[in-house]
Amino acid sequence: MLARLTRATADLDGPLAVVDLDRFDANADELLARAGGVPVRVASKSVRVRSLVTRAGERGFQGVMAFSVREALWLVDAGVRDVLVGYPSVDRGALAALARHEAGRREITLMVDDPAHLELVRQALAETGTGDEPPVRVCLDVDASLRVGLGLVTVHLGTRRSPLHDPPDVASLAARVASTPGLALRGLMFYEAQVAGMPDSSLAVRAVKRLSVLELGERRGEVVAAVRDVVGHDLELVNSGGTGSLETSSADGVVTEVTAGSGLYVPGLFDEYRSFRPRPSAFFGLDVVRVPAPGWATAFGGGYVASGPASRSRLPRVATPGWSLTGREGAGEVQTPLHRTRGAVGAPDLGVGDRVWFRHGKAGEAMERFDRVHLVRGDEVVDVVPTYRGEGKSFG
């Protein structure tokens, strides 16, 4: 695999990003199969290459989950349809732009979890004088974390996202949306990060995942029913899941769609998942500029560290076999030292000018470091396409 990438990019200078199209397509097909026929929305934050977001749609994904309103407007202007913004926004300028954007009001759904979010949209409509039609569609973000009572203490397992957890809380905000001119409730989102975003690395983690799936399966149905009673009709959209939880989310009959994105690239943080076969498709290549001592090599670039709690898990993975980051320097700001792993068999010698391959800890974040990505099929580059950064876009 890596030898193919090296041959394909032999005439190119590093640092460079590549995506293997055969693997990307196979990953897309597997994600769709794991969803069992439930529509899959592509998470753009995990891709950040517009042509590859489009490619996922061509493989069968339906709709996009964007991570900002400005990104959603840009995508709609580029012809993308049905864009769900996955996070609330307080960007007044972007909300005003949405209010003025007729196609955006038809194609974009905002995420909200607080009356203050509704008021910001109302202010945008009032200040732009664009009226209440077509209404701005919104989706309620429901906290999908697991809360476990241990005596007088409640343990929160999952991310800190929405304040909406219990059915009455969600129904109350749904009623607020229904009574607000210029707004329309499209649906609900449940993102169970403690299931979708955690590797199956231990018995304890797997137990928490099973408990979370059972609890959320029951509560999700209760929330949907409570909101339906308030608004008086079925919801068009009930979104759930991520790459690590497609099977369990899609198995719930109230879920109308699931979301995935990281599974297209399969970054390093997904190596320990057992629910699917990791098939990495995205890599970045660095060139060796120094050999400071036998068994050592120093590459130019490489300090592309993933977001999240600071730990070794957030560092890039050295994909070239038999070589490792150093504990003292890790992935460097300008250069990255590597050492030959003790006892490694078959590790290639690395000299000045040789290429070393890495994988980012997360998916789309790596593309923020590159203007373009080289698309490889077999042992040749078949296309070069811009990343979001290469198109002059940075959405946060």
Features of the shown structure:
alpha/beta, TIM Barrel, Lyase, Ornithine Decarboxylase, Chain A, domain 1, 2 domains, eight-stranded parallel barrel
Describe the structure.
The protein has 2 domains: 35-265, TIM Barrel (Alpha-Beta Barrel), CATH 3.20.20.10; 282-391, D-serine dehydratase-like domain (Lyase, Ornithine Decarboxylase, Chain A, domain 1), CATH 2.40.37.20. The protein has 12 helices and 19 strands. Strands 1, 12, 13, 14, 15, 16, 17, 18 and 19 form a 9-stranded mixed β-sheet that branches. 31% of the residues lie in helices and 25% in strands. With 396 residues, it is an alpha/beta fold. α7 (115-128) links the parallel β5 (108-112) and β6. It has helices at residues 2-8, 21-34, 50-59, 69-77, 92-100, 102-107, 115-128, 167-178, 193-196, 203-231, 246-250, 262-265; strands spanning 16-20, 40-43, 64-66, 83-85, 108-112, 136-143, 146-150, 153-157, 183-191, 237-240, 257-260, 282-290, 296-300, 317-318, 323-325, 335-340, 355-359, 372-377, 380-386.
